[in-house]
Amino acid sequence: MFPNVSNTGSIKTTSYKVVLPFYLYAALSFLVATIMLFISNDAFLSHYFHPHILAITHAMALGWGTMVILGAGHQLVPVLIEGKLYSEKLAYSAFILAAVGIPLLVYGFYTFNMNAPAKWGGRLIVFAVISFLVNIAMSIKHSKGENVHSVFIFTSTIWLLITTLFGLVLVYNFTYDLMPNDSLHYLPLHAHAGMIGWFLLLVIGVGSRLIPLFLISKYTNPKLLWIILLLINGALLLYFTIFYFFQHDGATFIPTSLVLIAVALFIYYCYMAYAKRLRRQVDEQVKISLLSVFMLLLPVILLFTIITLLMNTADEQVNLILTYGFVIFFGWITAIILGMTFKTLPFIAWNKAYRNRSAMSKTPSPKDLFDNNIFKLMGIAYLFGFTSLTIGILFSLQFLLQIGSILLIITAIFYNWNVIKVINHKAIIK
Amino acid sequence: MKIYTNDERKCNIAQAVLKNVIDPEVGLNIVDLGLVYEINFIEDEKVVACLMTLTTEFCPMGESIVEDTTQTLQAAFADYKIEVELTFDPAWSFELVSEEGRLFLGR
After folding, report:
1. Of the candidates A202, A276, A269, A267, the residue with the CA atom closest to the CA atom of residue A232
2. Which of residues 251-280 of A touch B (CB under 8 A)?
3. What is the pLDDT of residues B84-95, one digit of tens each?
4. To pair with A282 at 20 to 30 A between CA atoms, which of A170, A372, A376, A417?
């Protein structure tokens, strides 16, 4: 019947023991970051280089975004690179180094102590990233073959290393004159290497594999993904060149346009995967993840506005820049994590609890491992909290900042509740 | 989808028990999803050879589904050695889903 059958074997999943600490750490970091946001919301009425804003941004970017992505990254390596994770020991070392380094760095920023805490925090984070990079590189080396998704994950990790190394140099620049200008001058380079090079590349690389998988869609388009990869890397290299050699705000329209085209192409990719899906009903978690893809447009539009205003006025556009950073970390990145956590984490916990049982016994499905009502309430609190804070930052309205940050604390509590519920799930066999 | 076999009677039993193996992501059993291609019974070696696929080669639940299939067949054919083999040639497609499966997926 099938004359050309070939046994390809089953992909080997990464142990849950490696992955779960990352998720738990990220969940707690999100809660801590929202509490810091509530305590320090008046900082959002001042400059974006305020110590408390730097502390909140790094708690969000590293403790929340990066830790959950590192966890999911280790788990999804077999799915992304079509091979096994090279070393679980390297994964543990990445976790321990980052878990110690992040609070030190955040504390350093919060108290504006750029000596031992910030420096040690930065060093440990760089070592954590090196551990992850070596693990990814060796996993790819031992995998079946290169594919566009593995290139996305590898390139984005290189950008993460550039971001953290450059960040460490900026920390040193506070106490030693390493660079010709102060650290504030170089902040856009550090921020965009992280936001676009690390987060955007990785989210597109992982999302382009997972979204068709969760929609049960047969749509693939590696050529389009290669174009997106080139556009984003080209945009970043161009931006760095303009920053160093031209220092002209108008010229940054070119890399920004390249990123906008890449985002538009990724939205098209997601739309095609959605249109060609086999499953009619799309669950809430995938809906939030798809929504976050559209939320990507918000910071890009804001960036165009900022560049235009910087060219035409003498104003520094502090509120717009603050809003720009906020919609990236609390908007796009948070939305995608809120959705994707409850698509990936229940599978890890389900595999842990039920993989060795016979199908003759009835077991819950992965989506039954978390409380769907809490998930919906989390979504509502998040949507109102995010909107309230965005308007509050944009127009310097402190009462909206207070309401918004309370709603985000509630979002984080609901998120933590469900994450702990999933992680602690014990097998129920009827 | 018709499952290829060398023993219709035993294959019917195997099919019936495999309807308990659910793809956790889709929520549908592997028989109606069309993941099972062949079930052969090698009597002189006492082996049940099951050839199956996954909806995608990169399915994160693949390992679990294969283990589930092996244990379920083992429970039904205790005297046999179970050999489950994965193939992605031909790849799974929607045409392989049964009528019941299509109704379940809302198609």
Report:
1. A202
2. 278-280
3. 998 888 888 888
4. A417
